[in-house]
Amino acid sequence: MSETRISRRDGSGALGPAPIFVLVEPQMGENIGAAARAMLNFGVAELRLVNPRDGWPNPAAAAMASGASLVVDGARIVATTAEAIADCRYVLATTARAREMHLPVLTPAAAAAALKPRIDRGEKCAVLFGPERAGLSNEDVARADGVISIPVNPAFASLNLAQAALIVAYEWAIADGREAAPGGLDAAPPATKEDLERLIAHLFGALDEARYFFPPDKRPIMERNLRVAFLRAGFTEAEVRTLRGVIKALGRRGNEDHKSDG
To answer: Are strands 14-15 and 4-5 parallel, antiparallel or unpaired?
Structure first.
């Protein structure tokens, strides 16, 4: 299966093979758009709509998609569920209700694990999502090879269409090997040992001026404890620069206080 290239504005990089999401008789354009946004967040781009209530294209869906135009613009509209999954070899149906059908019941994670090898082999696979009010009909569930049951609170089992799509898409991304994007402290370069030694020397010099090391015979232990604490903290280059600025500012403030006292 070929990959779908997308611009950085639409999601960055390449979208590989993924399950097809089929929304059966969705009622509100806003829900379709929100589902499309959830799909693209986790690398799912192919959307099929079975007889959407308010017709298609739907301006509300496009607005709610918030940048996921790739999914909305490429949505395929069909009249029946049978038509939507005609070219698929493996289909799962999402439902919150127990059914008297002899179908495997999978968690979202287990469903993603079942989809992964099939999609890797080049098979088209689909996940069915039902209408917002009633969910999938028994006839539509019977077309599936298995059921995805999301472990919700039984006292409040109703999930928004987009929420269900997001959960399934997230588990697909995990099964497909997607990892958290590097960022924050994990992406910042750690400080060198030389930078850390300069920071510690700067600190010790400021503490000397403040007469912190008292009594003198305790100084080696006090220095060692401070050194271990600073080295264990794992500071980044930027954090070391910030701390040196703090020490410098405190020293300057201390000198000004001494002058005013004099």
So the answer is: antiparallel
Residue range 105-127, pLDDT digits in tens:
999 999 999 999 999 999 999 99
Could you identify the residue written with the tokens 């299966």?
1
Host domain of residue 76: 4-175
pLDDT digits (tens, 9 = 90+) for 28-38: 999 999 999 99
Same domain, 114 and 231: no
Task: Calculate the CA dihedral of residues 92, 94, 100, 102 and round it to 10 degrees.
Answer: 20
The number of distinct structural domains making up the chain is 2
Query: What's the pTM?
Result: 0.67
Amino acid at the residue 48: R
Q: 94 with 65: CB under 8 angstroms?
A: no
Q: Which of 143, 175, 207 is the last residue of a domain?
A: 175
Q: Are 41 and 10 in contact (CB under 8 A)?
A: no
